[in-house]
Amino acid sequence: MTAPARPEQPQRPTLRQRAVAERTVRTLVRRRVVSALMTVVVALAAIATTLPLLFILYHLASEGASAISVDFFTKLPKPVGVGGAGMANAIVGTLTLLAIACAIGLPVGIGAGLYLADFKGSRLATLVRFLADVLNGLPSIVLGIFAWEFLVRPVKHFSALAGGIALAAMMIPMVTRTTEEMVRLVPNALREAALALGYSRARTAITVVLRTATAGIVTGVLVAVARIAGETAPLMFTAFGNTFWSLRLTEPIAALPLQIFEYAKSPYDEWHQLAWAAAMVLIVVVLVISIAARFVTRGRVGGGHGD
Amino acid sequence: MSADGSAAATTAAASSDRTDGRSLGERIVGSSVGDRAYVAIITGFAVCVPLLLAFIFIEVLLAGWPALQTFGFGFLTSATWDPVHRQFGAGPAIFGTIVTSIIALIIATPLALGVAVFLSEYAPAWMRQPVGFLVDLLAAIPSVVYGLWGIFVLIPVMREHVMPFLRDTLGLGATPFFTGPMYGNSVLAASVILAIMVLPYISAVSREVLLAVPRSQREAALALGATRWEMIQKAVLPYARSGIIGGVILGLGRALGETMAVTMLIGNSHEVSASLFAPGYTMASLIANEFAEASDDLHLSALMAVGFVLLVVTLIVNAIARWLVWRVARGPKGAP
Amino acid sequence: MVIDAAPGPASPRLASPRLRAEGLTAWFGATPAVKDASIDIRDREVTAIIGPSGCGKSTFLRCLNRLHETVATARVDGRVLLDGRNIYANGVNPIEVRKFIGMVFQRPTPFPTMSIRDNVAAGLRVMNPRPNGRRTDEIVERALTRAALWDEVRDRLKENATSLSGGQQQRLCIARALATDPEVLLLDEPTASLDPISSQKVEELVYELRKDMSVVIVTHNMQQAARVSDVTAFFLLGDLLEVSPTKQIFTAPKDSRTEAYVTGRFG
Questions:
Q1: Which chains touch B (3 or more CB pairs under 8 A)?
Q2: What's the sign of the alpha-carbon dihedral A139, A142, A144, A150?
Q3: Hey, of B28, B29, B31, B32, which one would you mutate to test binding to chain C, going by the most C CBs within 10 A of its CB?
Q4: Could you tell me if B257 lies within 8 Å of chain A, comparing CB atoms?
Q5: A276, A196: one domain
Q6: A with B: how many residue pairs have Cβ under 8 Å apart?
Q7: Closest CA to C204 of C218, C193, C183, C190
Q8: Are residue A246 and residue A192 in the same domain, yes or no?
Q9: Residue B108 covered by a domain
Q10: Chain-wide mean pLDDT for chain A?
Q11: Which site in A278, B41, B197, C97 is 20 to 30 Å from C224, CA atoms measured?
């Protein structure tokens, strides 16, 4: 190897080279400034999106807390000015409607979910999966008028049953998809191990697959229940609401979201307070379930960058 | 050579715990009734899903048919909604739906995208779950609670601060879009609440899609000397584009069908006005507002017809959104 | 009558074939993974199946208990005779067939929601008649003892099966397969995911099991095949090239390709 040549004296930059260099520096500075600006913009957007939630929770807590009392949970609604009113019937009503919805929605949803996981390639499965997603996006008011047309109009009265069925119709596609996802997470090796023991397909599905996926399925069910617990539109023309206890499933029944709607629309402060209280109760339940669901499924879903 | 006899003896001896008198040959024959029943049952349940959708579709169509038949296509465009004279046109409702949805998307998309980009590109890993969760929680709040909050918090704020700000301080009152009395209950208020409600959906999908962009894309851009923002703009966002668009359309689907919060904030008026300060109607809020007191069968049928239009529109929009999101899930990220 | 079709030095015992495959061909969709394989699996013998990765040996094994067909697009042609009965005949219920043949997989697959005891007893649930509680406990103890796991778990039978180590879990799966007293035990690379000590325990186990049943073990560890088996079969690209007594296949194989594989020229 020859020794490196004596370094040449760098040529003095030409005017043109100097101009280009300056422009590059200016451009680079500009680009860096833009990048820094966008960082701020993006951070602001992030903050802005967390604000509404915080505001809502704050208002719910501050307005609702003052109206929460034992009466709220134990007394029936009363006319304005009488005092001692509560929403006991609405709480029980919501629970009743949820029970009806689950009685119908859970078997269908879990069964359909099992089908989708077991027969995942078949044409029916692809269709059902797609339609379940589509149903999930259906406006609940449409479900409400459908339920009215189908369950209320023919018998000419509102009923808890109609409300429960409308909610079940909302629940089914949700539970179907979450069940499918949870069942698919069960490793195929477990299925094969069960089959190799001489288990029938049915027994494999129930005693091995379902049992292993139980935690996830229950979570999915709870999330669906939390969702439909707050729905108003499907109930407006089916369960309709009731100021008293409803003793039969063929009678109209009160529900928390319906009461909130009625009271919020009204001109009475007293009722507004009750509406806030009911909203707070509803939100607490929904939040608790959502957080619990997050914890259970946290381990199974990834959160990092791809590849 | 050993004959069947010894083979059979070995079988019987080894399977004494399984003995019920039958031979191996007899025992392995037969079909599984239990399995057939099981498959039939879960298939039956699965079939309920398309049946349910078909059922909904048909019932609502049939109920709305009289009105559709009476008014024809004009139903969609006519602005007259007059129960007294039995003239029904869904024009204002459809107009209101479109306006509120579009404005909601205009407000929500940059914010949702912003928070999604923040979480996937800027935020430290520990922040992703909690902050993402907070944004997702917005989707868990019931519509009627949004409405309640809207009536008592958002509307006063809009009426006393935001609307005057827009009209006077920003001078937008010169345009026809920000004029008229500021009642508070307005298309604008409904759009804002819709934006908040739709935000988590766009954000969740965008976040997922952005996180799925392979690291190699980012590294390649940075290696070429791009600034962070340029990397996002030129390497990440284009990659995630169809997924993000799918998320936006999903949000649109949600916005179209939202009922309670909108009906509580929009003022429920059949007036069609260019001004965002004016009250209005959406298809969903129209049904919610008038259904209980529909004056006669034609009125009812008209409301059902509106419901049918809403059904069809959301079906199409959701189908498109799902297709886009599915396509991204299967596409650049890797082959199934 | 079943006739000994494989040539070679006669086995000193008059062992009858428990399982016999005749012209077995298995497909995934349009691709044949096993082509026209015929082999006798004899009673009280360990038969090893060796071959390079992807040669079809696992697929072949899974055809023996009709597990292959549970995969979508899978198809099987040919016959498999269990004690003279074709398990692929029309009208035969694969679920029942699998009750007579036990299987242990590559990775331990204990049922995660069940205790150790319930895992071992899992196969007993579908037996007809089903053993009662006390009998079940006896069977569980016997199976765990045979699997050389009893001493380690006797005090924690109620604990969840996932609390065991990998090697223990695999022995648990073996116990689970043994509990039902199968006619034939199929092992698909049972030590592939185990540490050397656990592997050794499993190999000793397999060697002992030959006293009571037929064992078929798929392995791509040739030394393992040499250690535990009496007969070895060599698969290559879906073809069953050779079946010979183990000593012979490793010292004087008949097929040149077998020789190339066992001497390590490819694999």
A1: A, C
A2: negative
A3: B28
A4: yes
A5: yes
A6: 284
A7: C190
A8: yes
A9: yes
A10: 87
A11: C97
Give the ipTM.
0.88
Q: Is residue A14 part of a domain?
A: no
Q: What is the number of domains present in chain B?
A: 1
Does C99 have pLDDT greater than 80?
Answer: yes
Co-location of A93 and A63 in the same domain: no
Residue B335 domain-assigned?
A: no
Chains in contact with C, where contact means 3 or more Cβ–Cβ distances below 8 Å, are: A, B
Alpha-carbon gap, residue B89 to B100, rounded angstroms: 19
A8 Cβ contact list (under 8 Å, min separation 6): none
Number of domains chain A contains: 2
Residues of B in contact with A97 (CB under 8 A): none
Residue B149's pLDDT band (cuts 50, 70, 90): very high
**How far is the C-alpha of C82 from the C-alpha of A206, rounded, in Å?**
29
B199: domain range? 94-284+312-330
How does pLDDT run across C223-235, given as a tens digit for each residue? 899 999 999 999 9
Task: For residue A293, give its domain range.
Answer: 70-297
Q: Is residue B237 part of a domain?
A: yes
| Cα separation, B232 vs B242, whole angstroms | 15
What integer pLDDT is reported at residue A67 of this predicted model? 80
* Reported confidence tier of residue A16, pLDDT bands at 50, 70, 90: confident
Domains of chain C and any CATH numbers: 1-94+229-267 (3.40.50.300)
**Sign of the CA dihedral C229, C230, C236, C238?**
negative
Q: Do C96 and A203 touch (CB under 8 A)?
A: no
Whether residue A23 is predicted with pLDDT greater than 90 in this model: the reply is no
CB spacing of B4 vs C93 below 8 angstroms? no
C185-200: per-residue pLDDT in tens?
999 999 998 889 889 9
Residue B256 lies in a domain: yes
Nearest CA in chain A to B192: A52
pTM of the prediction?
Answer: 0.84
User: Which residues of C fall within a CB distance of 8 Å from A300?
Assistant: none
From chain A, the residues in CB contact with C187 under 8 A are none
Say yes or no: A186 and A239 in one domain: yes
Does an H or E element contain C202, and which?
helix C196-209
Q: Are residues A39 and A133 in the same domain?
A: no
Q: Are residues A188 and A106 in the same domain?
A: yes
Pair C234, C40: CB distance under 8 Å = no
